[in-house]
Design a protein that fits this description.
The complex is a heterodimer of chains A (300) and B (174).
Chain A (H helix, E strand, L loop, with lengths): L2 H13 L12 H32 L5 E5 L2 E5 L4 E5 L17 E2 L18 E13 L2 E10 L12 E8 L6 E6 L11 E8 L4 E9 L2 E8 L4 E4 L2 E2 L6 E8 L5 E7 L4 E6 L11 E6 L3 E4 L7
Antiparallel strand pairs in A: 1-2, 3-17, 4-5, 5-6, 6-7, 7-8, 8-18, 9-10, 9-17, 10-14, 11-12, 11-15, 13-14, 15-16
Chain B lengths: L16 H20 L2 H16 L11 H29 L19 H7 L2 H11 L5 H8 L3 H24 L1
The chains are: A alpha+beta (300), B mainly alpha (174).
Chain lengths: 300, 174
């Protein structure tokens, strides 16, 4: 140990004046109980809100519109949006304005998979992490699954491949879910993407799922610049491919899906720039069919 | 069954809430004091940290991890407080008032130059120093509490040491 380290240790020991053993003040137990009750209520309310959003999506006419790109038909669906407040805050450094965040990929060792018993009945291919890493030093996880639509949380009108994107070691910064729902609207979608903003940074990302007919996903930013977004195979049993890209906060532009012949088969607007997300919340928007913020587990 | 044929029963100790409080809150106060430089604020932060941690105690896979969980909670609460104070200082600065002292927890006649220099460090660097040199946490444990990679935690310690070395050299030259 060098001299400076010794001085630091001595100073800290001296300043951390020993305090007498504290006895628990009256009212502490009640505060803990009311906090537990509050957390349970928030979880219940979030689940209810989530159910209403999903029910609303499938019980009302969708805002789908069609535009033509050459001979190919592109479906653009008005974005549903969600905002989900987190219970606790911690800092995540945001990327500098206009800058791409620092991202690492391909480390599944610490991936988070959100398992909920009530979803089990609707899942045909279990959730599994297909990519994970760190963004601005905070862990993120991309999870794939396939559902049959018989469960309570997801409408029976939405069987097919789905995905989830979470931030935080235990998903505690929040996350979002998306599905590629082929029979929910008149035309088939080739790609569903979800925009998500985590208020803790903020950090902005797009994640989605595409059919096997999509050959390439490209991000086109306003003001020039494009980026090919790698496609990841789904887990065994899921015949779809997934993608995730972290972008500069406020980035505008579009996400294009190209078919094997090089034609545009899907186009989504980067909707997250429109989201106003407070520091203690997660906001999502979807250009696809299903997109909703997921329940957030409070972290320390 | 043991060799003697007697059944061996292993019980896991689940302390009462009061015991948990007595065991952990004093240490949490000391940690928060070093992070904030403000003993009275530290008491509130440690108490709040206990309430938050105890509320999730039954969800912990290992009760032994409560201490680490509580340290993490106290660090996060202290960081939120620091962020709030920074925002308040910004407002005051914009209003043209005198900027409040960043830390007024040490007395002006204090001749110790190390403590004020530690208090001037950015929060995460200060937390890394306190966790490593006061709490004696390993590199990995420090990273877990700060919710960053081990490399990032080491970098925080290294940057803090550089700053302290420079500041102390300057102070001692005067």
């Amino acid at each position: 140990m060098n001299d400076l380290e010794e001085r630091i240790r001595a100073t800290l020991d001296q300043r951390a004046t020993p305090s007498a053993t504290r006895t628990m003040p009256p009212g502490t137990r009640q505060r803990i109980r009311s906090r537990q009750a509050g957390a349970a209520f928030v979880a219940f309310a979030t689940a209810m809100a989530f159910s209403f959003v999903v029910f609303g999506l499938f019980s009302t006419p969708s805002g789908a519109s069609r535009t033509a790109t050459g001979d190919d038909e592109v479906v653009i669906v008005q974005p549903p949006r969600g905002l989900d407040a987190s219970l606790d805050l911690h800092d995540v450094d945001a990327p500098a304005p206009g800058e791409w965040p620092d991202v690492t990929y391909g480390d599944l060792s610490g991936a988070y998979v959100d398992l909920a018993e009530e979803e089990a009945a609707s899942i045909v291919v279990d959730k599994s992490a297909i990519d994970a890493g760190r963004v601005q030093d905070e862990p993120w996880s991309l999870v794939a699954l396939e559902q049959n639509g018989n469960g309570a949380l997801w409408s029976e009108a939405a069987p097919g491949p789905c995905g989830e994107l979470y931030l935080g070691s235990w998903g505690d910064d929040g996350g979002g879910s998306f599905c590629l729902r082929l029979d929910a609207i008149e035309a088939s979608l080739e790609m569903t993407s979800m925009g998500i903003v985590w208020g803790v940074g903020p950090i902005t990302a797009y994640a989605g799922v595409a059919t096997s007919r999509v050959d390439q996903i490209e991000l086109d930013l306003e003001g020039g610049g494009s980026k090919v977004v790698p496609l990841l195979d789904g887990p065994p049993g899921v015949s779809a491919r997934y993608f995730v890209v972290f972008v500069p906060n406020g980035a505008r532009g579009s996400m294009l899906a190209y078919g094997e012949s090089g034609d545009v088969v899907g186009r989504d607007v980067l909707c997250a720039a429109e989201l106003e997300v407070p520091a203690d919340a997660t906001g999502t928007c979807g250009n696809g069919v299903v997109s909703s913020s997921s329940p957030v587990v409070a972290g320390p | 069954m043991g060799e003697s044929g007697m059944a061996v029963r292993v019980s896991v100790e689940h302390p009462s809430l009061e015991e948990l409080y007595e065991r952990h809150v004093s240490g949490a106060i000391r940690l928060a004091t070093l992070l904030t430089g403000d003993p009275s604020a530290a008491e509130d932060l440690a108490h709040e940290g206990f309430i938050r941690s105890a509320g999730r105690f039954r969800h912990l896979r290992s009760p032994a991890s409560f201490d680490a969980y509580m340290k993490k909670t106290v660090v996060n609460l202290t960081r939120q407080r620091a962020r709030q104070q920074r925002l308040e200082r910004d407002v005051v600065r914009r209003q043209g008032d005198r900027e409040p002292m960043a830390h007024d927890a040490y007395s002006p006649e204090d001749r110790d130059v190390v403590w004020p220099a530690i208090l001037r460090l950015p929060f995460r660097q200060r937390a890394a120093i306190v966790l490593r040199y006061y709490e004696d946490l390993s590199e990995d444990q420090t990273a877990a509490v700060l919710r960053c990679t081990t490399r990032a935690a080491n970098s925080l310690v290294s940057r803090a040491m550089t700053t302290l070395r420079r500041d102390l050299a300057k102070e001692e030259d005067v």
